């Protein structure tokens, strides 16, 4: 059943109070819910959501209802005759958390009861108006065996606890803030707790608690530090203060996503909480920091102000991702953070936007909303908020968010309300930006430049074009902020920018807004030819089409004072070379391209030594080539093995040209003892980059020995993991013993075992039977999403050569897993189908194989989730 945005109707009943009693027994759980309802219109039937609930009894105003008084229809409970005044409804239902492998609603994870209600999981716990615009006050009482489940948690404040007889106990929690059901959470388990506290800007003391399985307690400190940093940051940057006396995080091993912002009781995938130098890489540490921040920030952007309906998902997700990106940029390096965020945007979101799965940031219809927790809603949504931030400027943006939070506190609102508040606070018209939410696909921004030496003027002609798509035949022109600077070729300095018609120059960096089919801007007082630095910091989520010369790109790599744009220039140059190489390989020629390659290698050799000294993290980023997935978006017909071949050839060329440099750098930066700070992280990433190039060079045997030594001597996971990966990917003789050692060493650390699976699943030099072997391993299971993803999703998304092997066996393998998984966890099954999003553009042989496999899958009985995604993939 398809739901449409245009059909939105306000709820017919409000729910003032919810009283939940959750009685946990070994074989089942009883949920007694008492709702205080108020009709909003006369003579309307009450329709509650409920899925997989065994209804025991139903009372309306304390009167037992008989089966004639209500109907159970599919996923709804309908009561036709309800009073026209406020009334109470009590339902008792039986549920089976131990059988809940979809991990939605109340479920068991390693002996711990926990919940995931967003978006529509509450209906698997109790009958309810399970929609985000019904806000209510929740009181939750949990009873359970005292020994098995000493810890009983729910949202809000603990108001009572005690003995419940027969070896059981109870705890009652009350949430003083009204909330929609998707923010409900509860936990029952035997958990250890790291405690701390935070004093808010008005001097209130907040108790902070992170609950984990006892043996994970030593891995919670980084999450705690991140939490405190986030709380302070949100006060300082957005003026947002935390509002309860307690904030809890619980880590669970079985979790479909990263984490969930339930009011006062965030529930996290262990992968986004646990961090320790011995078990977690630097990237892992950064992920914990950003997810802790993200979920904390939702307390305002999501919880205090929530979404009217699920079409508005990006209202909270886009804004909160933007906030967590800003926070992370303030922690380590702002330009490296921006590079990483843009890499995800370009590799994942642009690909989604160009695929049959493309949808607007605010979708117009869905069958299963779980399918819309996408890179488009999250990442492109964040980019829209970033553009508004860029256009308004820091202070005006803050004025806007202040108004948004105060105007809509306690409400469930729309994306329009957000943009309107930003506009109203600054008396500006931002309505043109709404179109970014309404149409899919990535705009292409084409730029032409012209320098007039006589007039000393420099003209930019900019046009935009958004691809059309089924349902969106005539995309509108969008407001595209273009942040730019112009560099004098001789001095290497940015020049002052004065547009024709202006009386004086206005700074050395400006934002132009392109909002028409085609526009021109002319800068005057331009004494010499200049090199333009366009779309600085990626000021808009667009494809930039500007035919700069190789020399200009090399110039920007060296001289741009915007670190992000140095990286972007490098990427453009690599892309240009790689596309030429791929075309050569497609025509069965040698991949290498003479002059451009020489220019690149000479250029890199000229500035890398200095850059590595000044900013090792940026140097490492500048040396990372565009990914295979990114390149696949740039060719008309995709042959994944040709793309991989070209990439490898370019890597080898760089590796051999700079081998001595990489060796010296590797030795110089070789590990000092571990610390976690920005400089040390930068050094580790640079050292890893040098090692991985050395492994591609003709000196690979020597490099393998270095990697093996690094593996042995490592006192932290970053160093150990990069060495292991290097050994495995380079097919070193030492690889198998390192893998065996690694497994033994970390057999009790589930997250590390996940990474052991992942490094093997992403090995392009493995064979499909090696991957099948991984699935046959005793530690592999379909029922834990992290473990499942560590093999199947890693293989499908990060091992393109093998996944796309020409005989279709990789496709068949993944499709089989999807079919199997769909019966237990539809959300994850459906998500795995994303690996097929480029199938229509594959070269013929692979395309036919993919089509065969997908069509076969479509013949099976499927969940709504998988059915919807598969249909979107297969329809023309
Ligand atoms: N709101 C969560 C977050 O982004 C994501 C939860 C989504 N869960 C799901 N099952 N789709 O922080
Ligand atoms: Zn979120």
The largest beta-sheet arranges its strands as 6-5-9-3-2-12-15-14
Q: In angstroms, what separates the terminal alpha carbons?
A: 21 Å
How many DSSP H or I helices?
27
- Per DSSP E runs of 2 or more residues, the count of β-strands stands at 32
Mean model confidence by pLDDT = 97
Structural class: alpha+beta
Computed Rg: 28 Å
- Low-confidence stretches are none
Question: In which range does the helix fraction lie?
Answer: 40-55%
Q: What small molecules does this complex bind?
A: arginine, zinc ion
| Main sheet characteristics | 8 strands, mixed
Assembly type of the shown chains? Answer: single chain
What spatial form do the alpha-carbon principal axes imply?
globular
Query: Percent of residues in beta strands?
Result: 15-25%
Family: Belongs to the peptidase M1 family.
Domain Peptidase M1 alanyl aminopeptidase Ig-like fold: 442-547
Domain Peptidase M1 membrane alanine aminopeptidase: 223-436
Function: Aminopeptidase N is involved in the degradation of intracellular peptides generated by protein breakdown during normal growth as well as in response to nutrient starvation.
